[in-house]
Amino acid sequence: MPEQHIVAIANQKGGVGKTTTAVNLGAALAEAGHSVILIDLDPQGNASTGLGITTDQRRHTVYELLTGEIDLSSAAVETDVTNLRVVPSTSDLASADVDLSQTADRTRLLERQLASASAGTIVLIDCPPALGLLTVNAMVAASSVLVPLQAEFYALEGLSQLLGTVKQVRQGANPRLRINGILLTMSDYRNNLSQQVEADARETLGDLVYPTVIPRNVRVSEAPSHAQPVLAYDPQSKGSVAYRQFATEFMARLNLIPEIA
Fold it and tell me: What phi and psi, each to the nearest 5 degrees, are found at residue 123?
């Protein structure tokens, strides 16, 4: 029976390409024939918007999923990308840390709901830029954590805090949790700083850092305003090529093969 893969995409620092990675990795995996569900766990709802989910289509949201008002099959909305569904988010999720703070087993709310995901489905969780209750829920539910890391001066600062949270979750609620890898994003090889950050990251983190680096690319930046992954907006762009290449490496780490040729 195919294994269930649940991957939290997390970094408490905002603006590092986390949502962009969630959307485009999901699209690339779906393009390869895998069934993918993207959980938009960020109150900003950018992953939902980036996949063309309008306000009218957000009748059920991840907040209701967490509270148990609906199940995963009811919450997941079809997108224009074949094989890719999303559980959308709205600003209501911003109050979740407070609203759910007194709930029994509050760190396991998402885990319980994702247990119903079909075997073989890849679940990607786009975490908010914080290490609060929502991100902890994602890590408790996940089998691994993918960390997008922007190629900038302060990139490695704060990473130790995130890795510390992963360690705490692994020692407590989720012993199976591991680091899937570090993905360097928004790199500009015309800039010596990007090259230095990459070199430092590879020296410090070794094989955890994915071989592929996502370049800074205008098409990647434009795609969300067209409510599309860059793979659909401009399939031949440097950003699309990089995300497809990264998806191949990602599948290899999960011991997956494309479902279609």
Answer: -105, 120
Joined tokens for residue 64? 């209701």
With CA atoms as reference, report the closest residue to 98 among 158, 140, 58, 43.
43
Residue-level length of the chain: 261
Beta strands (DSSP E) in 41-104 are: 77-78, 84-87
pTM equals 0.95
Residue 204 identity: T
Q: Report pLDDT digits (tens) over 158-199.
A: 788 899 999 999 999 999 999 999 999 999 878 888 888 899
Q: Rounded to an integer, what distance in angstroms lies between the CA atom of residue 252 and that of residue 206?
A: 17
For residue 78, what are the β-bridge partners? 85
Q: What single-letter amino acid sits at 34?
A: H
Cα separation, 126 vs 18, whole angstroms:
7
CB 51 within 8 A of CB 78: no
- β-pairing, 5-9 with 144-150? parallel
Nearest 5°: CA angle at 203, between 197 and 204? 90
Distance between CA atoms of residues 3 and 189, nearest Å: 38
